[in-house]
Amino acid sequence: MNVKIINKSQHELPSYATGSSAGMDLRANLTEPVTLAPLARTIVKTGLFIELPVGYEAQVRPRSGLAAKKGITVLNAPGTIDADYRGEIGVILVNLSNEPFTIENGERVAQMVIARHEHIFWQEVDALEESSRGAGGFGSTGSK
């Protein structure tokens, strides 16, 4: 699938790290480093603008290495970029660690996955079909 993109950053376009990767890394497009205090959040701009086909979304997700090693994650994970959005892609990062974290220009701060989605139409009914699970949720299937 071809997707139109405008790159106003000085960084390379997002790309797949391996042939089987689902996500492409998004890089910070900064004029100066940004330090994120513990429990603070910020929107990191990427300099990227995309035009997705209708029926697709871009999901912005945390990078596992940043999350595991530094406690940095995407606050609204996954963030959704709709097909009709034409603004700059921004990543809402939060620092869940106890240490300040400095984001450098060009740093890989999140990953983006392009996914197909459907539009549904609600059908109001008086009852739903029974299932083996029923209304069980929030751990009802056990912990092991």
Description:
It catalyses: dUTP + H2O = dUMP + diphosphate + H(+). Substrate binds at residues 63-65, 76, 80-82. Its cofactor is Mg(2+). It contains one helix and eleven strands; from the N terminus they run ββββββαβββββ. The termini are far apart. The protein has 144 residues and is mainly beta. The protein is 5% helix and 35% strand. The protein has one domain: Deoxyuridine 5'-Triphosphate Nucleotidohydrolase, Chain A. It has one helix at residues 64-70, and strands spanning 4-7, 24-27, 34-36, 41-45, 48-51, 56-61, 72-74, 79-81, 90-95, 101-103, 108-116. It is globular and about 55 Å long. The longest helix is centred in the middle third of the chain and has 7 residues, at 64-70.
Show the helix and strand layout:
Elements: E1 4-7, E2 24-27, E3 34-36, E4 41-45, E5 48-51, E6 56-61, H1 64-70, E7 72-74, E8 79-81, E9 90-95, E10 101-103, E11 108-116
Antiparallel strand pairs: 1-5, 2-11, 3-10, 4-9, 6-8, 6-11, 7-9
